[in-house]
Design goal:
By secondary structure, the chain is α/β, with parallel strands linked by helices. Strands 12-11-8-13-16-17-19-20 form an eight-stranded mixed sheet, sandwiched between helices. A five-stranded parallel sheet has the order 2-1-3-4-5, with helices on both faces. Strands 6-7 form a two-stranded antiparallel ribbon. Strand 19 and strand 20 form a beta hairpin. Helix 10 packs across helix 14. It is globular. 43% of the residues are buried. It binds cytidine-5'-monophosphate (C5P). The site of cytidine-5'-monophosphate has 15 residues, from helix 12 and strand 16.
Length: 417
């Protein structure tokens, strides 16, 4: 699918800490998100991870020596320091932090860090006493004052057997920080820069008693992917999520709700709190909720008295319809989703009219489609007078394609105003 609006590249500087064992996984995660990675490995770092591993995973030559003819021929150390959008020191040893703070340039890593004006992010990893040492703390203060961003460390059990602060954050947390950084940058320049988007996602849980609830098979994956894709194009995204097991997307404001009524309150309060340009309701909101919620667990009876309790239901509010209705806070464009198991296009067209939204994304969720809870989706994008059948794609690709279509719509609308 189309690349993000802005190329994103990271110069990953790996120094000598046992936490370097987490770096291969980090490179894999960064690359999977389409971020270019080039590595600089210090001598200490090479005791924990080999250049070959970093090269194989990053797909780029690994730079180790300041006075290397190979590095200088391929890309001089000054050019290297400016070759990326972000310098990420991970793990950052106490020694490299000290050399950064002191302005030393006695190896390739420290020289690159001194020669750059690119933003620098560091993820320290070291023994708790090294972290706590006044010298390290003074270096950290200096570096923070100079604008270096620190990720962690966290407290935990360390490779040396001690416990406390100094443990490097996990690769997934580093990835989130990097994605958050790029999403912040693209907010100035991306095709959706300046656009505020509200997205609902996931299922709702409708309680019967403190331990039981009615729910559906929605995983929230499509809505979360959409929130990320919009943020990658520069939008300021607010995600209202039902209960999912998903990691909140980096650089996106997320609020959680459990029931449809809670999601309604949260969504409408959010929509009223500031002007949204776009709302996309992907949430699989339960249509009904139990009419009575018992305070205590409903008990089974014994023998012939074990008659299942009756299930009386009440209709839930329709959040999409409420957002779509004319009001002072209606977003410029409101997009619904329609999950159908049969006659998808006809049902979705009727829903578009009934709900009053502008576009609807219809998808087939019938038995065997694998869409609900799965990783792929096949959709029809329907506007008031068009229906575009998309091929089966990953949910991430559906999200990216929809985000690009939305960016085009806003740009054409802007031009015609
Ligand atoms: O009515 P149905 O559930 O098929 O409509 C689907 C669309 O309406 C989705 O966009 C969904 O997020 C939204 N919806 C809603 N509130 C409801 C039911 C559905 O916002 N109570």
């Amino acid at each position: 699918m189309a690349a993000p609006a802005v190329p994103r590249s990271v110069l990953l500087i790996v120094s000598g800490s046992i936490a370097a064992f987490k770096v291969p996984e980090l490179i894999r995660l960064l690359k999977a998100d389409g971020i270019q990675v080039r590595c600089v490995l210090t001598q200490g770092g090479s005791q924990f991870v080999t250049p070959l591993t970093l090269q194989a995973l990053s797909g780029q030559p690994v730079h180790t020596d300041l006075f290397s003819l190979t590095t200088e021929q391929e890309m001089g150390h000054i050019a290297l320091s400016r070759s990326a959008d972000l310098l990420l020191v991970c793990p950052a040893s106490a020694n490299l932090l000290a050399r950064m703070a002191g302005g030393l340039a006695d190896d390739l890593a420290s020289t690159v860090l001194l020669a750059t004006d690119t933003p620098v992010m560091v993820a320290p990893g070291m023994n708790v006493r090294m972290w706590d040492h006044p010298a390290t703390q003074a270096n950290i203060k200096t570096l923070k004052e100079r604008g270096v961003t620190f990720l962690g460390p966290v407290s935990g059990e360390m490779a040396c057997g001690e416990y406390g602060p100094g443990r490097m954050v996990e690769p997934a947390d580093v990835l989130d920080a990097v994605l958050g950084f790029f999403r912040q940058q693209v907010r100035q320049t991306g095709p959706l820069a300046g656009k505020a988007c509200l997205v609902t996602a996931g299922p709702t849980h409708e309680p019967l008693d403190p331990v039981r609830y009615l729910a559906n098979r929605s995983s929230g994956k499509q809505g979360y992917a959409l929130a990320e894709a919009l943020a990658d194009l520069g939008a300021e995204v607010t995600l209202i999520s039902g209960p999912t097991g998903l990691r909140p997307p980096a650089g996106v404001t997320v609020s959680f709700s459990e029931t449809a009524c809670e999601m309604q309150d949260l969504t409408l309060d959010t929509a009223r709190s500031k002007a949204f340009d776009l709302a996309i309701c992907t949430a699989a909101v339960a249509d009904w909720r139990p009419a009575y919620v018992q305070d205590q667990k409903i008990k089974k009876k014994v023998g012939k008295d074990d008659v299942p309790p009756p299930l009386a239901l009440l209709p839930n509010p329709d959040i999409l319809a409420e957002l779509s209705a004319p009001s002072s806070f209606r977003p410029q464009l409101v997009v619904g989703f329609a999950a159908e198991t049969e006659t998808v296009e006809a049902h979705a067209r009727a829903k578009l009219a009934r709900k009053g939204c502008d576009w609807i994304v219809a998808n087939h969720v019938g038995a065997g489609s694998g869409v609900m809870g799965g990783s792929e989706n096949q959709v029809i994008l329907m506007t008031q007078d068009t229906a575009e059948h998309w091929p089966r794609l990953s949910k991430e690709d559906v999200a990216r394609r929809l985000a690009i279509t939305l960016a085009d719509w806003f740009s054409k609308r802007h031009k015609s105003l």
